[in-house]
Design a protein that fits this description.
The structure is a single chain. By secondary structure, this protein is an all-alpha fold. It contains 4 helices and no strands.
Amino acid sequence: MSTRNVISLARPRTGQRGQGMSEYIIITALVAVAGIGLFAAFGDVLQNQMAGMSREMAGQSATQDISDAQASATTAQNRAAQADSLSTYNQQTNAAQ
């Protein structure tokens, strides 16, 4: 083996340096999109549950927050049971109003 072949084997390929970073960026973006989707679907329920836990930790009653969380969960369940089409779009987006 000549010296030239040994040197060319020792060099890292420059085209692969950014590949790992690109994969991490894609994975992070997918996780963010999934998180946004989950929060959009269950945002009201989560917000009311967090408010109830915060009140309970502060020593206050969380009865109203628990009721609000149950109402939000029922609304989300009703929206999920509806058929997804453009003809029911207004019903789904305005169900809580």
